[in-house]
Amino acid sequence: MEQSEISHIVKEALKTHDGLLRMRPSWVARTFLEPGKRLGLKEHEYPVGKRGFICERWLGSETEVDNEVKFKNEGLSLLDIPGHDILLRDAVQATKAEILGAEYAKTHKNLLRLAKIYDYKGRIFYHFHQTQEEASKVGATSKEEAYYYPEGVDLGPHPETFFGVHPYIVEQNKQYEILLPCLKKWDSELILQHSRAYLNVPGEGFHLPAGVLHAPGSALTIELQEPSDVMSVFQSNVEGKQISKELLFKDVEKKVVQEKQEKAVLDQLNWDINGDPYFYENRHTPPILIEETATDESQEYWIYYNTTRFSGKKLVVKPHKKVLSKDMGVYNILVWKGRGKADELLVEGQNFGKDELLVVDEKARKGVVYENTGDTDLVILKFFGPDINNSVIPFIPKYPEQKKS
Question: Is the domain of 215 the same as that of 265?
């Protein structure tokens, strides 16, 4: 379909729903780990042959999955416009000014963020995502990310996430001495003994810059990140399931791997953050109430913050109440719980096809009326790209505070 045709169809849909676009679910399969089966699919829908199992759902995605087993357009979101199969990625390119806003589109090529729900049976392997400096060497982009653990969902068997390494490893410059043998042997999951774990607390989360080792816990996680699928895996197996060592070098220049072998990957890490003795204090992100808009009818919270690369909120509307919700730019939503309306569009949590929307720039600024028509809280998660909320995003005070001389 030509861009001009896509532009016409999308603009008509925007007129029909006053700046709101429905999106279809985007399911993502993985071969390396077992699914947690908490995404709301039927039992028989999780296994997908050689592609593995459906373990993730990507939300408002312009990013294609980088899986070994390829599947056309996997990871990319489709607009839900009757009679048409239009990728969100293509819609943004065809109607940048209308979706992103004319000013934002001058400096941002697209939405530049990726939200996802990931759902694994156990803990995910110890790994990290490359910084922009390193990712650019293989033609990719960095992957800073943040987590939110939704309430009311089974936490799984290992609801704790390992982050970084024990501080002494960096303080004493023992990265090669302690970690390199584990990578060379590639025969156990004991590399985790050199890291520290923190509980996955429902309603809370963490902010994780690129270049930091982590092994996410088994809690169902709603993640917001930069639009990338780069990583290097440091763990040879998870609960007996063997992990290919090819994933250690997945996004590292081949010539550097040939020269340095496993050292090449260690040299990509941000050791200052990996060895931060106050990692929890500097990266833990409990919800922050936005007091300016809080009422008896609705409350909104920052749940993704501490960075300008993306941001996100949780809006809670009480039963049989409504709120005019205004924002500073384009965003997409996931209706997590409850049922109601976004303006005149019916929305409902866990009802695929009615739980994802894109709110374009002009509409976000004008405001959406979110109405709860049910008897339980309507919970809506909002996902924003870079630089939209820069003037209001909360930042965690650096701990410990630097003493003034």
Answer: yes
* Count of Cβ atoms closer than 10 Å to residue 167 Cβ: 15
In the prediction, which pLDDT does 402 show?
Answer: 59
User: Tens digits of per-residue pLDDT, 103-127?
Assistant: 999 999 999 999 999 999 999 999 9
Global confidence as pTM: 0.96
Q: Residue 403: its pLDDT value, please? A: 54
Interatomic CA distance for residues 197 and 31, integer angstroms: 25
Phi and psi for 338 in degrees, rounded to 5? 85, 180
β-sheet bridge partners, residue 53: 30, 47
345 phi/psi in degrees, rounded to 5:
-85, 130
Judge contact between 60 and 77, C-beta under 8 A: yes
Per the structure, how many domains does the chain have? 2
Residue 323: how many CA atoms within 13 Å on its side-chain side?
A: 21
Cis amide prior to 397 (ω within 30 degrees):
no
- Domain span holding position 378: 288-384
Return the pLDDT at 183: 97
Q: Are 208 and 133 contained in the same domain?
A: yes
Q: Among 206, 195, 269, 200, which Cα is nearest to 232's?
A: 269
Q: Are residues 240 and 325 in the same domain?
A: no
Residue 322: which of 303, 301, 304, 344 has the closest Cα?
A: 344
Below-50 pLDDT ranges, the chain: 405
